[in-house]
Amino acid sequence: MQTTPTQSTSERRTTQPKALLMCAPSAYDLLYEINAWMHLSDRPDKQLAWKQWEQLYRTLTEQIGIPVRLIEQASEAPDMVFTANAGLPLPGKQIVLSRFRHPERQVEEPYFEQWFHEQGYTVHLMPYDCAFEGEGDAFVIDELIVAGYLKRTDICAHRYLSRLTGWEVLSLELVDDRWYHLDTCFLPLGDRLVAYYPEAFDWYARRVIEQHFETIPVSPEEALKFACNSVVIGKHVVMPAGCPILRFYLEERGYTVHEVPMSEFIKSGGACKCLVLYLPED
Ligand code: ARG
User: Does the Cβ of 89 fall within 6 Å of ligand 1?
Assistant: First the structure.
């Protein structure tokens, strides 16, 4: 969107989350259909979902050692576990809150807003008519924002982010309803490396990605298993179980891969990364 010159790769500070925000699935359920994965005829097993969430939580806190902050799930917000959609945190304890596309998820907005206020964040709000689904659709990579649009986020949100930060925003059009958030098909791995599923993007977005990053393409089979929806903490990658090809490529590049079964969250259209919000401050 904006052509502010960015720093060269070597000068860039690498953005690393210092902590994560998660929400234990005390009221997690599938009570509506707002994406191509959700079917009321195939609701999650709540006990199994709890076990899978705990395994993710324990992998992050015990094996990787990153602090995890928790927000309580509101009883009327079955998708609130997907904290990646709370907003987009920015350095200096700031957050751009999400403005959800669907009323079913708009009920989450005041809970996230209150949490960030209580933690001392400066809260920025999108214009009313501008949908934005937070880190589900936007990644901060150093002083560059990579953002998806069309399905859940409107292009006006990219303009807002660019004006607010003064940073360049790479706007990527999502073209397939199964990959409706950027974090379902695009995985920043640090430095200039990303894994992504090319078919989720229009041809121009693919070209932009190829021009800006070193890329690892993800196969359709593993994209369908939410391979791109992984959490990256330094050289650790926590990914949904059952993606051996991406795992192989990552291990070859020196990453330590942790697999976590995510079947009960994939039923709602999310996996490891959707359950986590990256916080630049502890
Ligand atoms: N059921 C949720 C929705 O459709 C899933 C959100 C997944 N989150 C994500 N960051 N991809 O909104």
Answer: no
Determine the structural domain holding residue 252 and report its residue range: 9-279
28 exposed, middle or buried (CB, 10 Å; 0-12, 13-18, 19+)? buried
For residue 243, indicate whether it is catalytic: no
Q: Ligand 1: which atom is nearest the Cα of residue 102?
A: 12
- Catalytic residue of the set 181, 228, 243, 272: 181
Domain CATH number, residue 77: 3.75.10.10
For residue 208, tell me if it sits in a domain.
Answer: yes
Cβ of 268 below 6 Å from ligand 1: yes
- Distance of alpha carbon 46 from alpha carbon 27, whole angstroms: 9
Give the total number of structural domains in the chain. Answer: 1
Of 10, 44, 118, nearest in space to 275 by CA: 44
Burial class, 32, CB count within 10 angstroms (exposed 0-12 / middle 13-18 / buried 19+) = middle
Q: End-to-end CA distance of the chain, in Å?
A: 30
Q: Is residue 3 part of a domain?
A: no
Indicate whether 125 belongs to any domain.
Answer: yes
**Nearest residue to 190 via CA among 279, 282, 148, 253:** 253
Q: pLDDT tens across 226-248, in order?
A: 999 999 999 999 999 999 999 99
- pLDDT of 175-220, one tens digit each? 999 999 999 999 999 989 999 999 999 999 999 999 999 999 999 9
> Residue 1 domain-assigned?
no
